[in-house]
Write a structure and sequence with these properties.
Blueprint lengths: L4 E6 L5 E6 L7 E7 L5 E10 L2 E6 L8 E9 L5 E2 L1 E6 L15 E8 L5 E8 L2 E10 L2 E9 L8 E6 L10 E5 L2 E7 L6 E8 L8 E4 L17 E4 L5 E8 L5 E8 L2
Length: 261
């Protein structure tokens, strides 16, 4: 038998509703979200909303820790059954601009896995630095973005950290205007490796905020958002090939490889 399907609708506040076909039995049913690595569960009651349709709501007030949550439907007394994705209406997630008044940003994006199952990707960032437009020109990367959940102080700074252990963090040029910020990174300052971008909005004693792109309807940006490779002379000789990229968690990084001349 085909797996039951769930249609998902996102609201402007970041909540989700799931509509599934009525199981036709008198017993109660739940939509169950299971954290893929931690094993935690969130159970949402399914209630009738129309003929042969049941609905479960996941409001923003229900905490969903960061990670991937696999979706199941479970009728009382029976084993949970994996849900398949139906129609997704995620228009409200495009260019979403949360207030950040709660000190954090929560994002939930339903998507189809490579095996055709329904999973919800959740982020919970406290605070959050949203990466916007990226400009690659003249051997440097310019990143425009916005800070949520906290504010910049006079000691605000940014850091580029090599993901592999060792070496001090580099400090790119940071310009701030209200909650908006701009970073400028010269590729010739970087050595070979993977470099992760961070904000320090309160200076060295404040929070460390990873730059990421979360406020849209794309659950996995790594294979979709691609940027040009730039070649610049390396400080230690040879030629560097640098490229902005997103990680599997949609965090912003720069990948740099050394090419012999």
């Amino acid at each position: 038998m085909a797996a039951p399907r769930a249609d998902c609708t996102a609201d402007s506040a970041g909540g989700l509703t799931f509509d599934v076909c009525d199981h036709g039995a008198p017993e109660a049913a739940h939509l169950v979200l299971v954290h893929r690595t931690g094993g935690d569960e969130v159970r949402l009651p399914l209630t009738p909303v129309s003929h042969q349709r049941l609905r479960a709501s996941l409001p923003m007030s229900v905490t969903l820790p960061e990670g991937r949550w696999d979706a199941y439907v479970q009728v009382a007394g029976e084993e949970p059954v994996r849900l398949a994705p139906g129609l997704n209406d995620l228009r409200s997630l495009v260019d979403r601009a949360p207030s950040g008044a709660r000190g954090y940003v929560a994002v939930r994006i339903p998507y189809a896995t490579k095996h055709g199952n329904l999973t919800v990707r959740s982020w919970l960032r406290e605070p959050h630095a949203e990466a916007g437009d990226l400009l690659v020109a003249d051997g440097e990367l310019t990143v425009h973005g916005r800070l949520y959940g906290t504010g910049f102080t006079a000691e605000a700074d940014a850091e580029i950290r090599r993901r592999a252990a060792g070496g001090p963090a580099l400090r790119p040029e940071l310009t701030v205007s209200g909650d908006d910020f701009t970073l400028r990174i010269g590729y010739d300052e970087l050595g070979a490796g993977e470099w992760d971008l961070w904000l320090r909005p309160g200076g060295p004693e404040g929070p460390e905020v990873r730059l990421a792109r979360l406020l849209d309807d794309v659950a996995d940006k790594k294979p979709i958002f691609t940027y040009p490779v730039t070649r610049v002379p390396g400080a230690a000789g040879g030629e560097l090939a640098a490229q902005p990229c997103y990680t599997l968690d949609n965090d912003l990084s720069v990948s740099v490889s050394l090419r012999a001349v």
